[in-house]
């Protein structure tokens, strides 16, 4: 997989939350919808992201969110509809991953 991203001069969502504290409901809603749009595009193209967290959501000049760091991503296909194995980061890992069962796109949401 080759992914080309534009230059992001602002911080990640993690850094924004660290600087300003809790997001307002409106800010959270906007970033959530933008992130879900990115996940929808990943899943539409059979890409299982596997590491969604504020540190992997970059904000551009307009403060629009984009998912970054596809290092753990997996492409699922007709021969490979589910995967197994531990992946992700600490508190952001889905329960399916920690139980050592097979999982699919639901772990990204």
Automatic annotation (TrEMBL):
Coiled coil: none annotated. GO terms for cellular component: nucleus. Pfam families: Pkinase. Residues 1-109 form the Protein kinase domain. Transmembrane segments: none annotated. Keywords: ATP-binding, Kinase, Nucleotide-binding, Serine/threonine-protein kinase, Transferase. GO terms for molecular function: ATP binding; protein serine/threonine kinase activity. Gene3D superfamilies: Transferase(Phosphotransferase) domain 1 (1.10.510.10). This is Kinase-like protein. It comes from Conidiobolus coronatus (strain ATCC 28846 / CBS 209.66 / NRRL 28638) (Delacroixia coronata).
């Amino acid at each position: 997989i080759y992914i080309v991203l534009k230059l992001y001069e602002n911080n990640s969502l993690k850094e924004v939350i660290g600087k300003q504290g809790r997001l307002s409901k409106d800010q959270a809603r906007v970033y959530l919808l933008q992130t879900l749009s990115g996940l929808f595009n990943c899943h539409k193209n059979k890409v299982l992201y596997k590491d969604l967290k504020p540190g992997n959501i970059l904000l551009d000049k307009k403060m629009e969110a984009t998912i970054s760091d596809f290092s753990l991503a997996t492409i699922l296909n007709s021969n490979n509809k589910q995967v197994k194995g531990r992946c992700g980061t600490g508190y952001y890992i889905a329960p399916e991953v920690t139980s050592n069962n097979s999982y699919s796109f639901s772990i990204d949401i």
